[in-house]
Amino acid sequence: MFQLEVFDLATFENFLRSVIPQHALRFIEYFDPSLNMWTPIEEFEAVQTVSFESAVDSLVSIVPNVKEMVAEAKQKCDTPKDGLTPDESASIMLYSMEWGPRENSFDVILNNTLRAEDSEKIKPWELYIKLFVASLEKLPTISKTIYRGVKRDLRAQYPQGKRFA
Asked: What's the pTM?
């Protein structure tokens, strides 16, 4: 359970700029939240973990420039220091990379696909999601506060004083 405090956008942006390194501010993005919870893919446990390149093969026609993104992620993760394999580290890197225009970024396309709740659209992503989740599960658990900024007024959806979990 966590508590979400609502700030006006200017206050929130100033706060973020004071505590977050400049290179990390790319996580402040336009976001169209869905308040509906997506039901997980039931057969997900049966999906086999494959190499990073194999995991994204089915996304070539869905994600513009995905081959270039994969090459860049692999290059940045050739010797990970976090106990992950290069493929595992690259799967996380790919999700977190900025790519222009923003709507062509890997994470934006994946998140929009998941929000659509269309199991047929999710199928090409299953191998990547399996590798990505397996990679995240290998990282040590830490307890930190994470802030997410958005370029939209969400105050009506998140009234002050109400708790969101």
From this structure: 0.67
Q: How far is 161 from 165, CA to CA, in rounded Å?
A: 13
pLDDT digits (tens, 9 = 90+) for 101-119: 888 899 999 988 988 878 8
User: Which sequence spans correspond to the domains of the chain?
Assistant: 1-31+148-165, 40-138
DSSP alpha helix (H) spans, the chain: 9-19, 52-57, 66-76, 86-96, 106-116, 119-122, 126-138
Residue type, position 66, single letter: V
Within 13 Å and on the Cβ side, how many CA atoms surround 77? 24
Which tokens in the block code for residue 67? 């081959």
Contacts of 47 (CB under 8 A, 6+ apart): 41, 126, 127, 129, 130
pLDDT (tens digit per residue) in 57-93: 999 999 999 999 999 999 999 898 889 999 999 999 9
Q: Which region, left, alpha or beta, applies to residue 96 given φ > 0 means left and ψ of -120 to 50 means alpha?
A: alpha
The CA distance from 90 to 52, in Å, is 7
